[in-house]
C-alpha cells in the first residue's frame, strides 16, 4: 500500500510539470486509474509490479508528448522499477 501511495504522489508531481491547461485532465486521469485498481490484492506482487511499470511507462509517454525532460521521472522509475 505504501508503494502505491508513493507512486501516486510522484505521478501527481509529474503532472505539475505539464502545461497548465493539461494538468486538470491528467490529474483526474491519474486519480481515476488509481481508484480503478484499488481492489488489486496487495499480496499479488506480480500484478502490482506490472501496474507500477505501466504507470511509469505511461508517465514517460505523457512527458514525451509535452516535451518535458524524461529525467523528471527518475524518482518514479526508482519507486516503480526498483
UniProtKB/TrEMBL annotation:
Species assigned in the record: Manihot esculenta (Cassava)
Protein name: Uncharacterized protein
Amino acid at each position: 500500500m505504501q508503494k502505491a501511495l508513493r507512486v501516486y504522489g510522484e505521478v501527481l508531481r509529474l503532472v505539475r510539470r505539464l502545461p497548465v491547461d493539461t494538468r486538470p485532465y491528467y490529474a483526474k486521469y491519474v486519480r481515476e486509474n488509481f481508484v480503478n485498481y484499488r481492489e488489486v490484492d496487495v499480496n499479488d506482487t506480480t500484478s502490482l509490479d506490472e501496474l507500477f511499470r505501466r504507470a511509469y511507462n505511461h508517465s514517460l509517454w505523457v512527458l514525451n508528448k509535452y516535451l518535458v525532460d524524461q529525467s523528471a521521472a527518475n524518482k518514479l522509475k526508482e519507486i516503480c522499477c526498483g
